[in-house]
Amino acid sequence: MIIEKTARSTVTAVELDRDDELHFKLADGQVRRIRLLETRAGVYQSNLHELEKPGHKAKVVLKMFCRIEVDGHSVSVNRWVGNQDSFAPPWEFMGLRFWFDACQELFDHLHEHHGICKPRKHARLAVQDATLRLCPVLLHPWCPLHPDGLRIEDCYEGSDCWLGPYHGIDAHGGLDINHPAGTPIWTPVSIDEHGYFNSLANGDNNNRWRGIKRWDDGSTWVLQVHHILRLLVPEGGRLEAGAHIAEGAGVHVGTFEHSHFVFGVVEPGDGLDDRILLDPWLIFHQTFQDRAATVIHRH
């Protein structure tokens, strides 16, 4: 199958089966032909005595691999899950910024009982023209950020990044960041509509918030934060970027107080149910870059 996409002002999310081709038009009009050749995944290290039995202090690291052909050139990409290298920057080559998000073979080793995160096809990718940003505006921090960046030890029990092995056996359908109950949650971009989709008031076991951002290029971002202690703004209305919307990390948090972040992209012409989930690290990575580019250095 050939899938045709054109670089736009926001990142493109796509899922491919083996032998599918993505024809991706760059901002200068060149077309990169990206063919998925191979994917695989395996457990790199584990302290579990039995891989199928969960452990509260489990330390499991997995490695994913994909091989693609770009305009006839073979490119191999490794992706780590569950350690600090989970927060690697996207790759850049041949005018592309490229993120290998997930492959189905990861789920030969992990269950999907802690949030939806399995790709519908063999591989899930995020692609952008390397001259463009993740989105056309500077991003406001989603929550207070550690000056050294995201640290795997701050992801719940030390491995609960996106897809990370929750208790060693479940792919984690979100990015957890440990911080105290009441920690501010802000909007990284302006939001067109928002509100709880689960709440204690409605009998759910958690307060889960969702915001919808519609971009001028026809795409839509779906942003979620779970474990909300208290929502500080009325549901439904538009919010500016940087709005202090909630106090986080306070409901159904388990071992460590933390907030759980989810990021989805709806491609132009698709509906919300068709959204493609991506690692929220992509938003945090762009935020760290924006902070570095705008900070004032005093000498």
Model description:
The chain has 299 residues and is mainly beta. The protein has two domains: 2-129, no CATH class; 152-294, Glucose Permease (Domain IIA). The protein is 5% helix and 42% strand. It is built from one helix and 21 strands. The strands form five sheets. Strands 13, 15, 16, 17, 20 and 21 form a six-stranded antiparallel β-sheet that branches.
List its salient traits:
299 residues; mainly beta; Glucose Permease (Domain IIA); 2 domains; 6-stranded antiparallel sheet; 5-stranded mixed sheet; 1 helix; 5% helix
CATH topology of the largest domain: Glucose Permease (Domain IIA)
Order of helices and strands: EEEEEEEEEEEEEEEEEEEEEH
Largest beta sheet, briefly?
6 strands, antiparallel
Number of helical stretches of at least 4 residues: 1
Rg, Cα atoms, Å: 19 Å
Question: What is the level 1 CATH name of the largest domain?
Answer: Mainly Beta
Shape: globular
User: What portion of the residues fall into strands of 2 or more residues?
Assistant: 35-45%
CA-CA gap between termini: 56 Å
CATH architecture field of the largest domain = Distorted Sandwich
Look at the structure and name the CATH superfamily of the largest domain.
Glucose Permease (Domain IIA)
Total of domains: 2
Helix-strand category:
mainly beta
**Average pLDDT score:** 95
Topology:
Blueprint: E1 2-6, E2 12-16, E3 21-25, E4 31-46, E5 60-70, E6 73-81, E7 91-93, E8 96-103, E9 111-114, E10 123-129, E11 165-166, E12 170-172, E13 175-178, E14 183-186, E15 193-198, E16 208-214, E17 220-226, E18 230-231, E19 244-248, E20 258-266, E21 276-278, H1 281-294
Parallel strand pairs: 1-3, 9-12
Antiparallel strand pairs: 2-10, 3-4, 4-5, 5-6, 7-8, 8-10, 11-12, 13-20, 14-19, 15-16, 16-17, 17-20, 18-19, 20-21
